[in-house]
Amino acid sequence: MLFDKLETLDDLLLMCLKDLYSAETQLVEALPQMAAAAKDGRLRRGFERHLRETEEQVQRLERIGKSLNQDLSGETCVAMKGLIKEGQKLMSENATDEVMDAALIGASQKIEHYEIAAYGTAAHYAERLGYTDAAELLRKTLEEEQLTDTKLNELAKNYLNQKAE
């Protein structure tokens, strides 16, 4: 348990930041597996790019933690753990290459949607509390997550899902 009792918006922000830090560090471990499972070159390269971006996002969260004099490690994001576990189960399925790629996009978008919600919430809390620099860094990551979701959506709708039919 992170706090005996959540008493302030600062407490809630810290809880969100620790959750995001855990989520992103888990994702750094999972993305290479997803890239390896992707058969389509564009999808594989997209996962590899997102891994580099996620590593930068972890560094941003570390900067935010330092600026708030908080260690963000030590917690486990249960939601990300579940999403990754679901993705790993999916990757073990006996599927055609095309269907596996479509499934990987679906699993990735679930992760992106979770991150979009979490970063949006944390950015709002930080802004409300007057942590302008932290809010700006969180919004930058939020924009990256939204862009990744858009790219995944376009790849699925315009190409990979058609191949899986």
Automatic annotation (TrEMBL):
Coiled-coil residues: 44-71
SUPFAM superfamilies noted in UniProt: Ferritin-like (SSF47240)
UniProt keyword annotation of Coiled coil present: yes
Alphabetical list of InterPro entries matching this protein: DUF892_YciF-like, Ferritin-like, Ferritin-like_SF, YciF
Keyword tags: Coiled coil
Pfam families hit by this protein: DUF892
Protein name: Ferritin-like domain-containing protein
Native species: Hymenobacter gummosus
